[in-house]
Design goal:
binds zinc ion
Amino acid sequence: MAQGNDQLSLFDSHCHLNFSDFDTDRAKVLSQAKKESVSHLCIPATKHQEWLSLIKESEVISKESSVSVVTALGLHPWFIAEHSLEQLDVLDKLLKQRPSRVVAIGETGLDFFDRNITPQAKNKQLTLFTGHVKLACLHQMPLIIHSRKSHDEILKVLRKFKPESTGIIHAFSGSEQQAKEYLKLGFKLGFGGGITYPRASKTRHLAATLPIDSIVLETDAPDMPLNGYQGERNEPGRVKQVAECLAELRGISLMEVAEATSHNCRTLFRI
Ligand SMILES: [Zn+2]
């Protein structure tokens, strides 16, 4: 075995470290993450105002903290009222410059959780999501996709455009059938704190049985606290506990989980 292979190295594929929740102690959170063997993390944008600062911050944090930070640029469906198609033109121009540390397009997707969502709001989400997918095809970049009550609609768009650089379905908690449809399209599934809850038996079963090369780890910090930390701010360092949980569910070592999932992220993000 080559030297250095016994070093645990984890990749948090989805962490909103730029949110104000971390303004008072970001450096501490990063050094804690480093202590928990996090070597890489990806910060996806949620609004256009974040794009330029995320490019800069990823650069600065990577230099200062020894955690390698990459970023994704996109428009999150939760803030749909603030987004416009013109912003996607701006994103297109920005991506043409191939900014360093930008490895994916996202966070984008569809969120139909609210039963009272209007047809207009649904349509706007669909138009913007489709716009992101087209940009992913054009720039040959992977997508980071948020999906709630919308897997069938997301799959329909992905089947139509077949983005070659694929992407991640973040915080996956759909059915086995939907998981397999994503895998057929080459997508990876992101598992996070959700799998630490015993009641999440369906998602835990999928995390335990799907091919390991289709799985990436995430925290979605500051959201999605792990079991035992309900009501607390989530942190990227806790991706280690997600990895430990996955190792236990699959009956393999923590090292095997770390190696496979980090490799999957690095291959997808081409880093
Ligand atoms: Zn997110």
